[in-house]
């Protein structure tokens, strides 16, 4: 029995995405910047995908800039603002950001920028009053992740964005884990920049997007032919983006039903493991991604056994989970997110994440809970 529970790392491409990608590769492979028939067919496919992605998040198509993924979108947002200044300014980011935001922020810090790492509570939530108090006259950008990929906590983005807007500071959020799982309406949400990733919504890997609110000025991430409004030069990957658009269209139609289904399965898994003493739930249970279950494992010998130990043993049993973010799960180090939430350096090695998706069933949840208990019991006898 094979059970995949790592949908926050990547999702399998849906049928519509595969069909869209294959169709372009086979029959509509023109360069969308070319003026002839072949190019214009590709340009139409590209703009259709842009419309589909824009519809998913309630944006205008002209506000969607295609990138090669969520990491590039985050970098374009952070560095695109920063490079508009001649002198270092002030940046605010939360202490629980994905590395795609945290690393550019650290690089800016090394270049003389002042960076405020906004703290969180034990559930991983930012206090809006802390953001209010952190804003300075030279604050150039605020970036707070929407849904945290390791612990599932959803931030009060509307409130945080409103604070930023009232101060006249651009506000960015990484919504890679939120899109397709919770409703997004950028017509009303006070956000100026928002990052998306195709392969988190059942599209192909290698595509993403940055929403850039009309009127906001960014410096280009790549310079060259001037594609993507001059912000991301280079011939667009039309086939991959067609798959991204198709996946976005599917997600927009099925979002409400899938959100409720996943949340019910999520709560079922939490409940089945509620009396397991070695598992401590992490993140906010009420303000939470609908597909996300996470724990800190208090192993019998913490320096020797980590969350990765559980990942390896469940993999042997045919169940795929992860130890924190997929971008960092190959490293044996305490989770910066759990450390920011107040966990000590030993227990911050014990984080595990089980994320659910389109193929997850109640039977999968029940079997996973049973196997996880058995693995924990066996390891406790070591």
Please name the fourth-level CATH homologous superfamily of the largest domain: Type I PLP-dependent aspartate aminotransferase-like (Major domain)
Distance between the termini: 26 Å
- Number of helices, where a helix is a run of at least 4 consecutive DSSP H or I residues: 10
Which sequence of SSEs, written as H and E, runs from N to C?
EHHEHEHEHEHEEEHEEHEHEH
Query: What gross morphology would you assign?
Result: globular
Q: Just give the CATH class of the largest domain.
A: Alpha Beta
What is the oligomeric state here? single chain
Number of domains: 2
Radius of gyration: 21 Å
Task: Tell me roughly what share of residues is in helical segments.
Answer: 25-40%
Q: Tell me the number of strands.
A: 12
Strand order of the biggest β-sheet: 2-8-7-6-5-3-4
Topology summary:
Layout lengths: L2 E2 L10 H13 L9 H21 L6 E4 L2 H13 L7 E5 L4 H12 L3 E5 L9 H7 L4 E5 L13 H10 L4 E4 L18 E5 L10 E5 L25 H35 L6 E3 L10 E6 L9 H10 L2 E2 L15 H5 L10 E5 L6 H19 L2
Parallel strand pairs: 1-11, 3-4, 3-5, 5-6, 6-7
Antiparallel strand pairs: 2-8, 7-8, 9-10, 10-12
Catalytic activity: (sulfur carrier)-H + L-cysteine = (sulfur carrier)-SH + L-alanine
GO molecular function: cysteine desulfurase activity; iron-sulfur cluster binding; metal ion binding
Keywords: Iron, Iron-sulfur, Metal-binding, Pyridoxal phosphate, Transferase
Textual characterization of the structure:
It catalyses: (sulfur carrier)-H + L-cysteine = (sulfur carrier)-SH + L-alanine. Its EC number is 2.8.1.7. With 382 residues, the chain is α/β, with parallel strands linked by helices. The chain has 2 domains: 134 residues, Aspartate Aminotransferase, domain 1 (Alpha-Beta Complex), CATH 3.90.1150.10; 237 residues, 3-Layer(aba) Sandwich (Aspartate Aminotransferase, domain 2), CATH 3.40.640.10. Helices cover 38% and strands 13% of the residues. It has 10 helices and 12 strands. The strands form 3 sheets. The protein has a 7-stranded mixed sheet, sandwiched between helices. The radius of gyration is 21 Å and the shape is globular. It starts with a strand and ends with a helix. 50% of the residues are buried.
